[in-house]
Amino acid sequence: MADANDAPGATKKPRRPGRRYWRAGFLRGGIELRHLLRNPKEMSGHLTNVVVALLIAAYISDDVPGTHTPMAHLVLAGFAAYGLFQIGLINLPQMLVTEREEGALLRLRATPGGIPAYLVAKCLLVVVTAVGTLALLLAATALLADGPLPHGPGGWLTLLWVTTLGLLAVVPLGAAIGAVLPNPREALALIMLPTMGLLFTSGAVFPITAMPGPIQQVASVFPLKWMAQGLRSALLPDAARTAEPAGSWELPMVALVLTAWAVLGFLLAIPLLRRAARRESGSRLTARHRKAAQNGAMPA
To answer: What are the C-alpha distances in Å from 242 to residues 25, 26, 40, 224, 249?
Structure first.
């Protein structure tokens, strides 16, 4: 049967713009994924955490204090969480700042729906990269270092929803941060120090109970602590929860905190990206390129 919109004299209903933006975003994201897979240098960068995790697991032989759980398993669960955190809050802002410097946001400003489609593409790229890296980490450590895997359907379900909520918490936030960072040369320095501090204070490397109480409270504000705790609940035996500050996995709190960060990130990301795009101009772009060339950061 012919569509009513195709009938003679019929008024065609306009397509929903939101659907068009999603389609454009997925198409762009697919192109960027293919470019990533064809770039050995970028691929090797994403494999660094897997190699580091394997090396650490090979040399740690102690148990988590008060349990019979190998400390290596706790560290591997923490590295899994940090891998998701790093891709969202370090790699994504760097990509956004670099592309802004190359004029991407200036071009998006003249494209209807360009910012939402761009954000969809970046989210797709980051999510697929993060999930692929996580799967490789778990598979490699399980095969080569007797690493932990979820126990039963409940453990796999917990791994799924913690990973999903964790990415929802950090990807939009990473986009918001990328929209306000000054330039690629300063972006890494501004991001790395706080994220490395969170790595060592959020229970990802060693039990958070080893940290002073005030540091535990500060770490509890940020998503990495809850991502690591949620992944430990999926990957470690239930007896390991005695090493947690509350003596339990606190999964409802994990879901609450990660959801709150996801909402905050989405509320900030699109307005900040639109603001960054509005501020872009040909003269600003030329001035940045001239300054970078003077500093030797790019060819004159």
So the answer is: 44, 43, 42, 20, 9
Closest CA to 66 of 271, 284, 297, 239: 239
Bridge-partner residues for 70, per DSSP?
A: 63
Q: Give the SS3 label for residue 61.
A: coil
- Is the Cβ–Cβ distance between 235 and 155 less than 8 Å? yes
* Whole-angstrom distance, CA of residue 257 vs CA of residue 221: 8
State the virtual CA torsion across 213, 218, 224, 228 in degrees, nearest 10.
10
Could you tell me how many residues make up the chain? 300
Residue pLDDT, tens place only, 214-262 = 888 988 999 999 999 999 999 998 888 888 888 889 999 999 999 999 9
Instruction: Give, to the nearest 10 degrees, the angle between helix 251-279 and helix 152-180.
Output: 30
Supply the Cα-derived Rg of the chain in whole angstroms: 22
- Please state, in angstroms and rounded to a whole number, the distance separating the CA atoms of residues 81 and 138: 11
Instruction: Give residues with Cβ within 8 angstroms of 75, minimum separation 6.
Output: 53, 56, 57, 60, 204, 205, 206
Query: Is-above-0.85 flag for pTM?
Result: no
Confidence of residue 289 (pLDDT cuts 50, 70, 90): low
Q: How do residues 44-78 score in pLDDT, each as one tens digit?
A: 777 887 888 888 877 887 888 778 888 888 888 98
Q: Exposed (0-12), middle (13-18) or buried (19+): which is 149, by Cβ within 10 Å?
A: middle
Query: Is the Cα torsion angle 198, 203, 208, 211 positive or negative in sign?
Result: negative
**Helices and strands of the chain, counted as H and E runs:** 13, 0
